[in-house]
Design brief:
Strand content: 25-35%
Bound molecules: adenosine monophosphate, magnesium ion
Shape: elongated
Number of strands: 26
Strand order of the largest sheet: 7-4-6-5-9-8
Radius of gyration: 30 Å
Oligomer: single chain
Helix content: 10-25%
Largest sheet: 6 strands, mixed
């Protein structure tokens, strides 16, 4: 039944083998590095925290001075955050605040809720345990530790971590230059009137948005007429300006499908029929010096094939080591009694019971299904699903990383 069809994993493997990671790097301020791909592992040159400090508002004490609950200690100093304390005089307590340095000699903090102020002294109403509420220098990060590996896309907490050890700028790979264009004489841009027989160019918005999610430098050339000359000219321009060219439409075998001959004329092309639904036709090759991926024009197909193929290809081109999305085991609250012979990516949504609901029409022209959904169920060929079954679910949050 699947004669002549390539399976998804094989196609992805071949595609990734053809990805050429960007090698040029640039240095950017840490504050603008979120979303960029880190080019060099980062080490800390300092301890974090840099000094012993208090985890609570309260009193720094020597545990040995608090033999029993109710011990009375003179308050010998006050240590706000940012202060440099004196050593703690024996038999006294220091008023201390969260983040403030713990004075030498103190070995515990008693939280203020367990203390009573008594003039210039404090009554300590519990017996502290040594080290209680003390954060020791270097307990989070030690000088010399690797804090971030190369080849990750930086998240907000990663740039925060770099900043916490004083790193003010980071070496990242330059952005991948991604060309997008859209074939089809039927296409009209929103904002223009829609003549009879025409449709809006929704793929431009979906694919351009995805390119933004993945941090590309986007060269969006818009609609290209269905002609060999126009398609070839577009390819030449895109190839001279970009690393990767992604197109939608024109890769079927219809009379108006000029992408295939145009890429063949400007470079080389492999046409794949892929055993997936939605999807099927995918073109992969090169135009000039740029990689080329031609997606089907069908809105759901181009969206899904972007996530399954273009996403990992772009990630690999950006220098990201781990491109595999993590699927979750989730409960199907629907039946899928008549699976097809191709691997299916079903549009599903979490329900209030923690299971997955299925969009009622899985037709690949129904873009509403993708907007309604929270992600895709990855269903093997010929595999029926019964309500209550565990399925492999790829939430958009995983696919958008
Ligand atoms: P094609 O792959 O060019 O044969 O197109 C397949 C289907 O997708 C046709 O119904 C097209 O009208 C539709 N289509 C192609 N490109 C787009 C686009 N950019 N936006 C929305 N629909 C499209
Ligand atoms: Mg077309």
């Amino acid at each position: 039944m699947n004669k002549g069809l390539l399976n998804v994993d094989e196609a992805l493997e071949r595609l990734l083998a053809g990805a050429r990671p960007v090698v040029e790097t640039e240095t950017v301020p840490t504050l603008s590095a979120t979303g960029r791909v880190l080019a060099a592992a980062q080490r800390s040159t300092m301890n974090v925290p840099p000094m012993d400090n208090s985890a609570m508002d309260g009193y720094a004490v020597r545990v040995a001075d608090v033999r029993a609950a109710g011990a009375k200690l003179r308050v010998s100093q006050r240590i706000p955050a940012g202060a440099v304390p004196q050593p703690l005089a024996p038999g006294t307590a220091a008023r201390i605040f969260t983040g403030a340095p713990v004075p030498t000699g103190a070995d515990a903090i008693v939280m203020q809720e367990h203390c009573t102020v008594d003039g210039d002294a404090v009554l300590v109403n519990t017996v502290p345990v040594p080290e209680e509420w003390v954060r020791r220098a270097g307990s989070d990060i030690r000088a010399g530790d690797t804090i971030l590996p190369a080849g990750i896309r930086l998240r907000p907490q990663d740039t925060g971590l770099a900043a916490s050890v004083g790193i003010a700028s980071l070496s990242v790979y330059r952005r991948v230059r991604l060309a997008l264009f859209f074939t089809g004489d039927e296409l009209v841009m929103p904002g223009d009137p829609l003549p009879p027989g025409r449709i809006y160019n929704s793929n431009r918005f979906t694919l351009n948005g995805l390119a933004q999610v993945f941090g590309c430098e986007i060269h969006d050339y818009g609609i290209v007429p269905d002609s060999l000359d126009a398609t070839r000219a577009m390819l030449r321009r895109a190839a001279s300006e970009c690393d990767v060219i992604v197109t939608s439409g024109g890769v079927s075998v219809g009379e108006a499908d000029f992408v295939k001959p145009a890429v063949e004329a400007e470079g080389e092309l492999l046409m794949w029929k892929i055993a997936m639904k939605p999807g099927r036709p995918l073109a992969f090759g090169r135009a000039g010096g740029a990689s080329f991926i031609g997606l089907p024009g069908n809105p759901v197909s181009s969206f899904v094939t972007f996530l399954i193929f273009v996403r990992p290809f772009l990630l690999r081109t950006q220098g990201i080591a781990n491109v595999q999305p993590h699927a979750l085991a989730a409960r199907a609250d629907f039946d899928w009694p008549e699976p097809g012979p191709r691997r299916e990516f079903l549009r599903v949504k979490w329900n209030a019971r923690g299971g997955l609901d299925l969009y009622p029409t899985q037709d690949s022209a129904v873009l509403m299904s993708t907007a309604w959904a929270d992600g895709l169920v990855d269903n093997p060929p010929n595999h029926p699903i019964r309500a209550g079954d565990t399925v492999s679910f790829m939430p958009y949050s995983e696919l958008y990383r």
